[in-house]
Amino acid sequence: MSDDSSAAIRDTRKDWISEHRDMYLRSGGAQGHIMDISAVGGHGFTTHCMIRYTGRKSGKTFITTLIYGDIGGEVVIVASKGGADHHPAWYLNIRDSETVDFQVATQAFRATWREPQGEERDRVWAFMCQVFPAYAGYQQSTDRLIPLVMMKAIEPIDGFKASDATGERQY
């Protein structure tokens, strides 16, 4: 998929993405954790988390809502950007940090993160394609290897608030 095609998809979903994030934050995680995304190739019961990270250039704090899976107690997110030819900004930002904050429903954590390699990556990718089948098509549409990020909680933290974000979501 070209970056232009990816941008067109994001533009049509931008309002939904912002509304989803705002609902998740407003409710403290009581709403927004589970969403029906069957209209965009997902399942009726798809889990979402929020990640909070610092911009590597701006120094601003961002909160992004993403589909996730759980494998052996690690929360897995996919840096797909809809199959765009370049990585999403959130991935580039957390790649420059040792930790990332995430929230699942009403519980938030500081976490270490890693990218699975080799056979483990293959297994995790297959699992995430079951969580959100459109990932398989996204990978076919780009030459880049779509990164997987596995987060392991190291300590509980306060739940996210809209006021935590000093920057607007990076699409």
UniProtKB/TrEMBL annotation:
Q: Which domain of life is it from?
A: Bacteria
A Pfam family this chain is assigned to: F420H2_quin_red
What this protein catalyses is:
oxidized coenzyme F420-(gamma-L-Glu)(n) + a quinol + H(+) = reduced coenzyme F420-(gamma-L-Glu)(n) + a quinone
Its Gene Ontology molecular function terms? coenzyme F420 binding; oxidoreductase activity
Task: Choose one Gene Ontology CC annotation of this protein and give it.
Answer: plasma membrane
| NCBIfam families in UniProt | hi_GC_TIGR00026 (TIGR00026)
The family line of this record is:
Belongs to the F420H(2)-dependent quinone reductase family.
Q: What is this protein called?
A: Deazaflavin-dependent nitroreductase
Source taxonomy:
Bacteria, Pseudomonadati, Pseudomonadota, Alphaproteobacteria, Sphingomonadales
